Amino acid sequence: MSIEVNNESSIPVDENALLRLSTYALQQMHVHPDAELAIVLVDEAAMEQLHVQWMDEPGPTDVLSFPMDELRPGTEDAPTPAGLLGDVVLCPQVAEGQAQTAGHSTLEELLLLTTHGILHLLGFDHAEPDEEKEMFGIQGDILVGFALKERRRRA
User: Fold this and answer.
1) How far apart are CA 54 and CA 71, in angstroms?
2) What CA–CA distances, in Å, run from 61 to 37, 43, 105?
3) Which pLDDT band, with edges at 50, 70 and 90, does 1 fall under?
4) Which residues pair with 138 in a beta bridge?
5) Residues forming the annotated binding site?
6) What does pTM read for this prediction?
7) ∠ CA 50-8-138, rounded to 5°
8) Can you tell me the distance from the alpha carbon of 138 to that of 144, in angstroms, rounded to the nearest whole number?
9) For residue range 96-117, what is the model confidence (pLDDT) as tens digits?
10) Burial status of residue 67 (CB atoms within 10 A of its CB: 0-12, 13-18, 19 or more)
11) Residue 80 DSSP one-character state
């Protein structure tokens, strides 16, 4: 996988954890190993500007996804073709507040948001109840599998 993580925010973030999670998520979704993904972390002002420009909504948000080649999940026998998956833009300041509300770490929130953003890049949505159930189920499976893998890695 070609995954680039660029932290343009003033918040220190474990970029290697985001890289490991992204690699794991893309493998789970059977995305071609030559696919390209960019993860950019921005401050609230930059995120607000993107949120207004692309979603026509005020204020900063937690995550935005910008798909490029409209790749979709593959299967073990037929992985997604190589291509540009797109960009996931995260706002650590917004994630920090959400993490406090949820009772977990900012890193855990950023891992969740990264997974969520990647699934959007792969065409998943949560506008309808059945879509939400599918997307959030896959998101949960990826996060649990990644947490188990991380635990084994540290052991």
Assistant:
1) 20
2) 20, 10, 18
3) confident
4) none
5) 116, 120, 126
6) 0.96
7) 65
8) 10
9) 999 999 999 999 999 999 999 9
10) middle
11) B
Number of separate domains in the chain: 1
CATH of the domain at 95: 3.40.390.30
Contacts of 98 (CB under 8 A, 6+ apart): 62, 109
Q: What is the pLDDT of residues 49-90, one digit of tens each?
A: 999 999 999 999 999 999 999 999 999 999 999 999 999 999
Token pair of 95 as six digits: 């994630």
53: containing domain? 2-154
Amino acid identity of residue 119, one-letter, is: L
Matching residue, tokens 């290697």: 16
94/64 Cα distance (integer angstroms):
12
Ramachandran class of 126: left when φ > 0, alpha when ψ lies in -120 to 50, beta otherwise: alpha
Annotated binding site for Zn(2+), which residues?
116, 120, 126
What single-letter amino acid sits at 43? Answer: D
